[in-house]
Amino acid sequence: xxxxxxxxxxxxxxxxxxxxxxxxxxxxxxxxxxxxxxxxxxxxxxxxxxxxxxxxxxxxxxxxxxxxxxxxxxxxxxxxxxxxxxxxxxxxxxxxxxxxxxxxxxxxxxxxxxxxxxxxxxxxxxxxxxxxxxxxxxxxxxxxxxxxxxxxxxxxxxxxxxxxxxxxxxxxxxxxxxxxxxxxxxxxxxxxxxxxxxxxxxxxxxxxxxxxxxxxxxxxxxxxxxxxxxxxxxxxxxxxxxxxxxxxxxxxxxxxxxxxxxxxx
Length: 265
What we know:
Blueprint: H1 2-18, H2 24-30, H3 34-42, H4 48-79, H5 81-100, H6 108-127, H7 139-157, H8 163-169, H9 173-181, H10 187-238, H11 247-264
């Protein structure tokens, strides 16, 4: 019965993984499986059987959810782009007020890390020149897919970071979402992306545990900067596409996303 509950929680976390603005790790924390998952990953060698028994049902739930819901999400982005994007922005905004109470910005190092978290994704975006990433059978494409997998793993581990929002900023969201729908369509791309995810999970889990023990306040300051970076970037993508007739619907759906996210956070 416990494995069934872990599997169902994994399904919900998986939905959060593919929706820009929703942090899968934040959902994991809400459902009480975040800290145990981090502990299980970091102590896999110490108690392999216990750790893998805990992680497997969650992992299967996440993977199944990503495969099933990617097609639905892609449909809404293709046919209801503005409404979907404003809903995503509302979801991110809803996490901000309660998250802000978890830390303070009194020290200079905390302010610096907050600014670093804010500007870092924009630097990534400038590097790709706002172009949509299309992978090819080249070393550079494979290396970037590995990097995307690594970033995706970081978003799984670090609460408050939306991996899909980062993918949008790097011009790779459509590519990754298509890969999620059918991972066997390009097995070589999936292998490099998956390898990046596996390596990233182990490294990120260790770093998160280390930094939270070392300086939890500074860690949350960095995450806070990343949150605002995602909000402003996603907003900049769509603000000039909103016509007067759409103003009320998009504002309404933004508030729906805000209140839903704020309630569940």
